[in-house]
Amino acid sequence: MMGVKKIEKIAFSILFVSTIFVITPVMLIAAVILFRGVPAVSLEFLFSMPSNGMRAGGIFPAIVGTIYLTLGTALFSIPLGILAAVYLNEYAQKNWLTRVIEIAIINLAGVPSIVYGLFGLGLFVTFLGFGASILAGSMTLAIMTLPVIITATRESLSTIPNSFREVSFSLGASRWQTVRYVVLPNAIPGILTGTILGLSRAAGETAPILFTVAAFYLPRLPQSMYDQAMVLPYHIYILSTQVPNVSPKIQYGTVLTLVSIVFILNITASVIRSRFRKRKTW
Hints:
With 282 residues, the chain is mostly helical. It contains 11 helices and 2 strands, in the order ααββααααααααα. It has helices at 4-37, 43-47, 60-91, 96-109, 113-127, 134-158, 162-170, 175-203, 207-210, 232-241, 248-279; strands at 50-51, 56-57.
């Protein structure tokens, strides 16, 4: 029979090899994008309009469209997601209806993104008459992001010890005052982290924006929330499949720009979480 230490070594070896298998493809992809994308990135590439049928020039309209879309998604999803999570965690009774809502939220997180795109097309673009616009695209991405924000917020709220609430109640505070001044301030790190990660996912999505906002090419920047916009994920798809004779340098430079935006959002989430954790005294 094998000893306990030998079994433990085998288990650790399997875990280590599994980790390497997970990390290696990601590192290779990142290395290829960096190696082939860096030569294309310059101020002119980032801040100029496309030209020559998008075979030359820059990607400024796609960057602006991505930023508008991400801000719109944050505007619609963050307040709604946090308020829904606070209600479910702090106010809602534990009954069959609450369980159904919780299961629905979990299932919504696993719905393919193309389904959200078709839902946005039917509801916002056609039924509500917003047309293909930043408004319709933002609302579609907000609905897709809501399960992530609600789940992250609920997880963060549930980590706050009940003794905090009990002390607040014993001092005469109402439930809302307890949530407002005790629970939410202590749950902010987890809420912000989940929110930013959800927005970074939305910034990189292509399927939900195909029918709701993305434009093949626009010679100008969007002027209002009812305008279409060029967006980086869809622009990458266009450059790779719809426009012939595009330099790979431009394609990889565009990919590197999008990955950098998502990476910056993730780093921001980590820094915010780290700073708030340092302030905790419990």
